[in-house]
Amino acid sequence: MRHIEAPNSYGLSARRALRCASLAAIGLTLLTSAGAAETRAKPFEAWPEPQVRANMSVDEAKKIVEERSREQTEWFGPTSGPKATDEPVKVIYVSADQSYVSFVNWGRGVQDAGELLGWDVEVLNGKGTVTGVLQAMQQAVASNPTAIITSADAGALQDPIGQAVDKGIPVIGIHAAAFPGPNPEANLFTNITSNPAEIGETQAAYVLAKSDGQAKVLHFLDNSFAIARFKAKAATDPIKNCEGCTFVDMVNIPIADQTRRIPSVISGILANQGNEWWGTTCCDNFYPYVASALRASGVAPDKVKLVGSDGPPSAYDMIRKGEYEVATVPEPSTLFGFQAIDAVVRAMAGEEPSKFVQPTYLVTKENADAEGGDKNEFIPSNNFACHYENIWRGTDKDCSSGS
Question: What is the pTM for the complete model shown?
Answer without folding.
Answer: 0.86
